[in-house]
Design goal:
- Helices cover 45% and strands 14% of the residues.
- The strands form four sheets. Strands 8-11-12-7-6-13-14 form a seven-stranded mixed β-sheet, sandwiched between helices. The protein has a five-stranded mixed β-sheet with strand order 3-2-4-5-15, with helices on both faces. A two-stranded antiparallel sheet has the order 1-16.
- Helix 5 links the parallel strand 2 and strand 3.
- The longest helix has 28 residues.
- The structure holds nicotinamide-adenine-dinucleotide.
- The site of nicotinamide-adenine-dinucleotide (NAD) has 28 residues, from helix 7 and helix 8.
- One of its GO terms (biological process) is aldehyde metabolic process.
Length: 497
């Protein structure tokens, strides 16, 4: 059984030494990480190919370029993000220093999943570094080649005390979770998410859970079907459907279904040729367990497109199923593979009702030319994200937060939201000990009286924020003088009452 005491002890000592509070130190670590991605791009692509038979183009877009751009974004914005915020002050705090200080949590744990084994681990790691934390980095053991790359190469670029890599499966992770962390960031299934959440409860450790679930895709008859089919199939088939935000199933009428199937057959031929298995552009299922699980799901409904498979390569042909029932396993569990069931609904209203009767999805996709209908979907449903006439791409918009809601997760990251996830917003009030300030606030002290009470109510009453700093300074001085006179009057009067 692994023992993580030493690793944690070194990380805690490193955090208490204060080195990660230094912004130049954080910047240097992030630059090193960026250099690591640049210098080892080919190795990363090879590891992804070995684990998932991932085509190079997909690896570039969704892992290496994504991770590089994420770090570039952080490096551009870091000096601004680390600044304390100075929120508009109320009247009563006009003379005080009111600020929100960005504090790192301390030693945080980031646990990655196998489907995007580098990006899902190292993007939150970069955010945690940017925010000034020490980070224990735990790759998924299931993508074994990528886990090996992370364990062998990342420590050559990052400070080893502050950012240790630990490897292992469920038992090692369970052991790791016995340690006390200041924050846990987990990506993976909802089932394991519950285990992580329960473990975090022991020390009330704050947690982000990036989970999965079934993300529906509604199509109406107003769409340009060719474009809709391409965008939906690309979202379904990238990484062989093993994407948390892949459109899980389609909701549409029978009429739309027929057109979808005709176009889908044509698009698949255009992309992968007559013999899909020989195409280099389709990844494979990660392992035999998932392969068998997917074959079980293919038994639901009727195959309208595809349906072939080859266990020796863990190949499953892109498959569209029709005539599925709500109670079929394929409509109950997350698919996470290249199988797309179509469930028929009569109207958009029925689709909304269907979605709202289930767990809140990670994302809802709507394909329609009607802005009114898109708005209606957005307004009437709850999900981690929402995208109209597109799939997957919302995840790449770095100014948007990414995360689930309800059973699809809690918390968010990407860009500034990642920095904020790993930052404790410390409320800071600074006063001086001047006689004027003391006089102004002395009505709070016993012995209490009605007069003191009404003076306090007057001082504390919420007022519209003052328009600008210069005016507020002038007003503060004027009010300070006025209130001192008033306070003196009240206090003298109450002592003579
Ligand atoms: P996985 O098996 O790689 O597990 C994720 C992590 O949890 C791994 O590091 C693993 O070691 C650890 N783990 C597994 N079992 C554990 C246990 N019993 N106790 C403690 N730790 C354990 O990945 P997975 O869970 O199969 O990932 C697929 C799921 O992740 C899908 O549901 C998918 O939708 C979801 N996912 C979500 C996102 C997101 O950003 N929301 C991204 C990718 C995947």
């Amino acid at each position: 059984m692994a023992n993580f005491d030493d690793t944690l002890q070194r990380a805690r000592l490193a955090f208490s030494s204060g080195k990660t509070r230094n912004v130049s130190f954080r910047r240097k670590q992030l630059e090193n990480l960026l250099r690591c991605y640049e210098e080892h791009e080919n190795e990363i692509i090879s590891a992804l190919e070995a684990d998932l038979r991932r085509p190079k183009q997909e690896s570039l877009i969704v892992e290496t370029e994504f991770m590089k751009n994420d770090i570039r974004h952080i490096l551009f914005q870091l000096d601004e993000w680390v600044q304390s915020e100075k929120p508009p002050k109320s009247f009563v705090n006009m003379m005080d220093d009111v600020q929100i200080y960005n504090d790192p949590f301390g030693v945080v744990l980031v646990i990655g999943a196998w489907n995007y084994p580098l990006q899902l681990l190292l993007v939150p790691v970069a955010s945690a570094i940017a925010a000034g934390n020490c980070v224990v980095i735990k790759p998924s053991e299931i993508a074994a080649n990528c886990a090996k790359f992370i364990a062998d190469v990342i420590p050559k670029y990052l400070d080893n005390d502050c950012y240790p890599v630990v490897c292992g499966g469920p038992s090692e992770t369970a052991e790791l979770l016995n340690q006390r962390f200041d924050y846990i960031f987990y990506t993976g299934s909802t089932r394991v998410g519950k285990i992580i959440h329960a473990a975090a409860n022991k020390y009330l450790t704050p947690t982000t859970l990036e989970l999965g679930g079934k993300s529906p895709c509604y199509i109406d008859k107003s769409v340009d079907m060719r474009t809709a089919v391409k965008r939906i199939l690309w979202g379904k088939l990238i990484n062989c459907g093993q994407t948390c935000i892949a459109p899980d199933y389609i909701l549409c009428s029978k009429e739309v279904q027929e057109k979808f199937i005709v176009e889908a057959k044509d698009v698949l031929k255009e992309w992968y040729g007559e013999n899909i298995q020989s195409s280099p552009d389709l990844s494979r299922v990660i392992n035999a367990n998932n392969f068998q699980r997917l074959l079980g799901l293919m038994k639901s409904g009727r195959v309208a497109v595809g349906g072939n498979y080859d266990a020796s390569e863990r190949f499953i042909e892109p498959t569209i199923l029709v005539d599925v029932k709500e109670t079929d396993p394929i409509m109950e569990e997350e698919i996470f593979g290249p199988i797309l069931p179509i469930f028929n609904v009569e109207s958009a209203y029925d689709a909304i009702k269907f979605i709202n009767a289930r767990e809140k999805p990670l994302v809802i996709y709507v394909f329609s030319n009607s802005n009114k209908l898109v708005k209606e979907f957005r307004r009437s449903t709850t999900s981690g994200g929402f995208s109209s006439n597109e799939t997957i791409m919302h995840c790449g918009v770095d100014v948007l937060p990414f995360g689930g809601v309800g059973m699809s997760g809690m918390g968010r990251y990407h860009g500034k939201y990642g920095f904020e996830t790993f930052t404790h917003k410390k409320s800071c009030l600074g006063k001086d000990l001047s006689p004027l300030g003391e006089k102004l606030s002395s009505a709070r002290y016993p012995p209490y009286s009605d007069r003191k009470g009404s003076l306090l109510s007057f001082l504390l009453r919420k007022r519209r924020p003052l328009p600008n700093l210069h005016l507020s300074h002038v007003l503060a001085i004027g009010l300070g003088v006025g209130l001192t006179v008033l306070t003196n009057y009240y206090l003298q009067k109450s002592s003579t009452d």
